[in-house]
Automatic annotation (TrEMBL):
Similarity remark: Belongs to the integrin beta chain family.
Bilayer disposition of the protein: Single-pass type I membrane protein
Gene field: ITGB4
TM stretches of this protein: 712-734
InterPro entries: CalX-like_sf (IPR038081), Calx_beta (IPR003644), EGF (IPR000742), EGF_integrin_1 (IPR040622), FN3_dom (IPR003961), FN3_sf (IPR036116), Ig-like_fold (IPR013783), Integrin_beta_N (IPR033760)
Keyword Signal: yes
Protein name: Integrin beta
Highest taxon listed in the record's lineage: Eukaryota
Gene Ontology terms: biological process: integrin-mediated signaling pathway
Alphabetical UniProt keywords: Calcium, Cell adhesion, Cell junction, Cell membrane, Disulfide bond, EGF-like domain, Glycoprotein, Integrin, Magnesium, Membrane, Metal-binding, Receptor, Repeat, Signal, Transmembrane, Transmembrane helix
Amino acid sequence: MMVSPLSLRTRLLLAALLSLSLSGNMANRCKKAQVKSCTECIRVDPDCAYCTDEMFKDRRCNTQAELLAAGCRQESVVVMESSFEITEETQIDTTLHRSQVSPQGLRVRLRPGEERHFALEVFEPLESPVDLYILMDFSNSMSDDLDNLKQMGQNLARVLSQLTSDYTIGFGKFVDKVSVPQTDMRPEKLKEPWPNSDAPFSFKNVISLTEDVGEFRSKLQGERISGNLDAPEGGFDAILQTAVCTSDIGWRPDSTHLLVFSTESAFHYEADGANVLAGIMHRNDEECHLDATGTYTKYRTQDYPSVPTLVRLLGKHNIIPIFAVTNYSYSYYEKLHTYFPVSSLGLLQEDSSNIVELLEEAFNRIRSNLDIRALESPRGLRTEVTSKMFQKTKTGSFHIRRGEVGTYDVQLRAMEEVDGTHVCQLPEEDHKGQIHLKPSFSDGLNLDVGIICDVCACELQKEVRSALCNFNGDFMCGHCVCSEGWSGKTCNCSTGSLSDTEPCVREGEIKPCSGRGECQCGRCVCYGEGRYEGQFCEHDNFQCPRTSGFLCNDRGRCSMGQCACEPGWTGPSCECPLSNATCIDSNGGICNGRGHCECGRCHCNQQSIYTDTTCEINFSAIRLGLCEDLRSCVQCQAWGTGEKKGRKCAECSFKVKMVDELKKGEEVMEYCSFRDEDDDCTYSYNVEGDGTPGPNSTILVHRKKDCPPGSFWWLIPLLIFLLLLLALLLLLCWKYCACCKACLALLPCCNRGHMVGFKEDHYMLRESLMASDHLDTPMLRSGNLKGRDTVRWKITNNVHRPAFASHSASTKPSELVPYGLSLRLARLYTENLLKPDTRECDQLRREVEENLNEVYRQIPDAHKLQHTKFRQQPNAGKKQDHTIVDTVLMAPRSAKQALLKLTERHVDQKTFHELKVAPGYYTLTADQEARGMVEFQEGVEMVDVRVPLFIRPEDDNEKQLLVEAIDVPVGTATLGRRLVNITVIKEQASGIVSFEQPEYVISRGEQVARIPVIRRILDNGKSQVSYRTQDSTAQGKRDYLPTEGELVFQPGETWKEVQVKLLEMQEMDSLLRDRQTRRFLIQLISPKFGTRLGQPHSATVIIGDRDEMDGNIMNHPLLSSAPPQCDLGAPQNPNAKAAGSRKIQFNWLPPPGKPTGYRVKYWIQGDSESEAHLLDSKVPSVELTNLYPYCDYEMKVCAYGALGEGLYSSLVSCRTHQEAPSEPGRLAFNVVSPTVTQLSWAEPAETNGEITAYEVCYGLVNEDNRPIGPMKKVLVDSPKRRMLLIENLRESQPYRYTVKARNGAGWGPEREAIINLATQPTRPMSIPIIPDIPIVDAQSGEDYENFLMYSDDVLRSPAGSQRPSVSDDTGGGWKSEPLPGEELDLRRVTWRLPPELIPRLSSTL
């Protein structure tokens, strides 16, 4: 909707100033969003607005305040406004004895990403009506419990009357589904499964809620137990019917509803019915299906409900469960009850004699807890309830005080995206609907909610193919929207025309925009966010002149290829101050009257090394170097020798005087003595006066030289002979040795006339301004550019502390350190390689790591590669379009030389195993040194050497690094400038960035984990860090969406937020998946602009449903442990890898500081950390042994020193390998006839992995139990089918049966049994042939070919079988008994023998 002009202009101007004063994170969101229309703009952020002013030239999508400040007219600003309206509000009356809320109705409309807070009042009276419904297991094992309950009716009434004066009580019973295999379907068992018992049933409402306790007691006296076959009961069916059949049960609307669930068995849940009965059941429809007698009727056709379904329905109908269970099933319900926000669990005695006390305790505990949940919420809206009055419990409910009006803060948030899709692109029911915000004991608040997804009105009024757009587009919302194939503000530029790029090509060049930008409508749009400028992007703003290594002397900025100096500075590199302050001498004059001031420096009329920067005499310099300066002039004037003999002697500014005796040293300014190279004699002279020799000065020289007694002329012929011999040897090497020829080519006399060397000899870097941890250092090649040259280089860290690197290497040679490795692949770079989640990047990463691991495995104790990434290296000659791979290898510190030689050898061979690489390029980075190689291809003049800078927190305030060109292994170039000094100045940090706490607990229902990142400001400047997620027990793309990015703190900002999307779980997944804690890590890395990482800079995010979190996480010891009192940080990059079925290799990177050792904690995943094992290590790696096979372990490590333990690392999980399983459990035989048996077996006690198949073997044996003939084999390839029906066995013959299991590690040992069916009583199976049981024919072929069918295909033998699968020796036919109320159907038939042949027992071995 369009906003009308506001009269309060002041408010808008103030908002504009506030927007400009803040660090524009939200404003930048509007500006930076790539939107094409008004509607897309206003959906970006709640603060975004759109300008439809036709004359507006700035960016149209921005905040409303900035659009007005930029000149957009008020009436042209389009913005969508949210709304909030109370539709129903009745004040709470505390005199009423019922639960109440206020308000009762709201209407809210929010923009995507917007949130609104409002207050909700809830009142729970001191005494409220209570409805108590007892739901009891009526299987035979509960007979004594029923007897006790019959005697306790009066006691129940007494307890209820003490709690409230208004109560009702009811009773229901349940057993299980009356169907196979849960119930024995023999007619006599269907009538009376146990003596003096009722027929089987699923659920029956016996006594509806009543105030008449006498009626309750009398009806209860006539109840009898029933029975079923399997141990788990069908209580979930009963709970659901009790909840949804409100009128049949008698629940009152304004009372507290309590459901007591009493049993001693486990429970069936969703998919049990479908699996066991071959999928013939449908999912539960959550409707009431009780007949006139209160009996559940849909037990045959509907499956059991799921746990999440029960949680939702009980909450919807205000029913609070109380689980009263015996010790036998307590562990099942201990986990189950945590799913319910308000519930209770009590341990029932075997005969239920303590049920009254249990109910009294549970009711007192429940009535003090209140849960508020949002029901039927659209996917695009999220609610969160908090309170300052009441504390939250572990299950998420509030611990309240009854009789008081509680105030709660409700946050309603409109999501921007749901599973990667914008909320406005979802169906309407996902962003609009009714939310029922319901407390535990009352109806609650109804919210009519919706997300504003309206289309801008100006888009509905567009001018199609407008003349304003040259008929090539539509005029809409103040600007042209061009048709396909056209671009430009007025759609006058054809994007398919090749001639459009001609105006972007600079004269003398081929590429448009100098290869540094894109040509759009005849104009260059440069790359690099301001790095390149100019009409043709010809100016590089990183290549302006430097002074002392600083760009533009750090006194200006580079623009259009030139320095734009700050006020008060001038010169090509802003090196010249405009003032004369630096030229003032000690007397206050300019240059001591002996020169003039230019560019901030004195230029003296008579330059001398003994004049200082202001042309004053520097007497200290005179004393340091006077003798040496006068030496050559004294030598040539006095003796006619030396480097100035001849004409140059006239240039001397003083005269010498020969004397017989010189004054002593203490009597003159300088006494000098030197050796004359021409005659090897020593001469002496004196310097008098102030030491500044002028044209009329005289130096006194001793007349007599001091010469040695002998001569060495005889050495000259010997030296000549040796030189000739050396020349001859070199000539022979040149002719016959290729290696020597290459070496000689490096000599100045033999090279081809070209040179390589670094462009600069010194770089001065400020760490606070650095945007990366490396420096691209240009290297030039001059002269003849033909041919190929490679240059080896190295960089040494901390050269100002020469003993630093050697000390660390000598003291810890076996310590594992990370080695960075970079290689150039023999393949071109693509944009997909920059995106880690693309298939191309993932495939290449696996290929690189597999091949490099194969090569480096020969390095002892080397680990596998990690952190593999791909990039492009600019300014790399003709191969700059090739892919560079950067990866990290953990290896011992002593392995550096071996790694270097191995890397160089494979680079020369152009292959690492099967991975092709380009020759002439590599970088290997150790902890204090890096070595590498760069290549000059033919015709290439300059390449960049990418050198690491080893930026670390423990660095000195000013550290020195030295880059050295070592040699030219390939080519004939000579080395010119070999050394580059790099000085890194470490200024005070602009800020310290960290997480608020090391762990965060996030409900999966919130969909987005919002993790705060804080900055402590030291210097109010810009700070930047990067972040990335890392899997732990949670898996990326299954539990959450992996993410990485950067956080930029502008001046004044102290808080940012990392957002990670959480993925939803389906109801089935949430039930079937294990209940382990799901967690992942977020790490802060790569601080820039002088930023420091504080502690903690790694956070663990724990996710799960609210009940899962509260049951498994909130008691986690990490959440309550005190922070360690030590300055050591957490070890970095923990990595675990299984080394077998009972071993795990665990390694990490040392933290900053000087740890003396490490302490490792490890435990089985899912167990409490209090059960962890501890292990000490002196090196950053350890091997965990004596572990369980195929078991998930969690581990973490901390460093410790003299002050104690430091922070623990992030959690790492690892699963050990599989191991062959143990033998299967006992074999059981259900003898159907003398030739047919049903063989079943139990799962191995130690599966040691995932069982994938079983092999059953059987064959004849003699009287000594020795095999007769070959054994027949049957492969059961489904681990759940641990049952086999074997037909056509030889009558009265003993057979040997063996069963073994297989998992991923192979086959385990056999379980054996020998049995003769003729000696065993025959009977049909107590449970009829369960569908999907394999049937085999003992007289068919051998080895897996006698697998006939599954029993739910056809209940008969296949063609060729000598006996039917449903007949016996007597020839008596099998009889069938239809299920009650069903037509005869082969798939719903119970097969049985004639009654006279039914045995009493079956044989079990």
